[in-house]
Description:
Blueprint: H1 4-29, H2 34-46, E1 50-53, H3 60-70, E2 75-79, H4 86-90, E3 91-96, E4 101-106, E5 113-117, H5 124-136, E6 138-141, E7 144-147, E8 153-158, H6 171-174, E9 179-182, H7 188-199, H8 211-221, H9 228-242, E10 256-258, H10 262-278, H11 286-290, H12 293-297, E11 302-303, H13 305-309, H14 314-324, H15 332-338
Parallel strand pairs: 1-8, 1-9, 2-5, 5-8
Antiparallel strand pairs: 3-4, 6-7, 10-11
Protein name: MoxR family ATPase
GO molecular function: ATP binding; ATP hydrolysis activity
Domain ChlI/MoxR AAA lid: 255-321
Amino acid sequence: MEDNAPQNTRQDAATAKLMEQILYEVKRIVVGQDAFLERVMVAMLAQGHLLVEGVPGLAKTLTVKTLASTIRGHFKRIQFTPDLVPADLVGTRIYNQKSGDFSTSLGPVFTNLLLADEINRAPAKVQSALLEVMQERQVTIAGETHHVPRPFLVMATQNPIETEGTYPLPEAQVDRFMMKVLVSYPTDEEEYVIVERVTGAPVDVSPVASTEQLAALQAECRRVYVDPSLVQYAVRLVSATRDPSRHGLKDMSRFITFGASPRATINLVEGARALAMLRGRTYALPEDMSDLVPDVLRHRLVLSYEALSEGLSADALIERISSKIPAPPRPLEHEKLVA
């Protein structure tokens, strides 16, 4: 064990340095949006997908495109529209008149980072086509299975201020997103820097990692230690969304029609691992998980008409649940690791 300690320390230092370099390169282009960028990195390390809600012009596309450049990955953007068909997304079979054979033309989902812009503008058939890619990391065309490149991350955006011509996302698809992140306007100081940077000399992004290195980071993320008490905390939080009365929140039962699925519990644990790794630790702490609770749960709650009529949001209900179910204390094992 003692012989491996220096090697593990060197490996941890190299990992921290690589993560720092990736973030530094992205921040050379993207101003502010630290919480959003952190969630994008968490999704990448935990191999999850991200649903982002924010008005246009808040650097959502720029963030993902820049991140793809830093890891030498492929980036593609699809503008979702009501006339989009599944073949536009996954690809199709094309008949060659000269040879008399069919060939497969793969769609834009075959990339490392896919930005699905205004995802709620596409009809149900397109949503179901994207669903298979998100869950299985593969596409079936004319009975043939084609695997998408690894790593693979879908970041879908929704515009909260435009509702005309939009389709509600199926609950099954919404559940496939690891987190739903709300992107807000920049501060006055940040906006000043944005204007200076955009109107000034262009900044080139330097690739600092390969997709193979990112895959190695993802594998390392799975080895981050999560104490059983933290897993129990995640289970209690998600269970409280399904049966609030069992957790001392009887008055909330009338506001939630359906709670979160077991995927939420898994995503809380995986997200805590990734956030701990981003923060330079090989073990997760309670704050790593509690910081992600709103992002992991807000899109998974189906609110009742009573909640909507009273103007209650999913975030308000999640806040009540979080205040009722306390996070566990830091386990003693963590203190030993720090020492």
